[in-house]
Amino acid sequence: MNQDEVLTAAVSRASVAEVLADYSWLWEDERLTIPIQPEEYYAVAVEANGNLTLAHRTSGRVLLFAPDYAFTGVTPLNGCPPYSLLTFDHEPDLAAWIESCANRWRSA
Predict the structure, then answer these.
(1) Long-range contact list for 11-14, CB < 8 A, 24+ apart?
(2) DSSP 48
(3) I need a surface site. Which of 45, 52, 61, 96 has the fewest CB within 10 A?
(4) Distances (CA, A) of 57 to 9, 12, 20, 45
(5) What would the mean pLDDT of 65-79 be, rounded to a whole number?
């Protein structure tokens, strides 16, 4: 939880498609393709190191794009190499993710 921006206008300007295109080599090196449509997601948080928390525009599914992380509670998305797109083990959607973040901030 080292986020610089959460649910702000600055976060909304982050282009998921551009970020994933810049890191497409993560998948290409493994002979994989990015298994999501980036334009279907928007950023809801940006960490200090550039990691992005993403939410699906219609389902609310939450993913973490984290080429730089060292924490538990995440699993690589099917079809993704480590340190790329990850699912949260206990926060499958935006509402659950917000509640989890709020609980961690309150207990900090």
Answers:
(1) 11/43, 11/44, 11/45, 11/46, 12/42, 12/43, 14/43, 14/46, 14/52
(2) T
(3) 96
(4) 16, 12, 17, 14
(5) 89
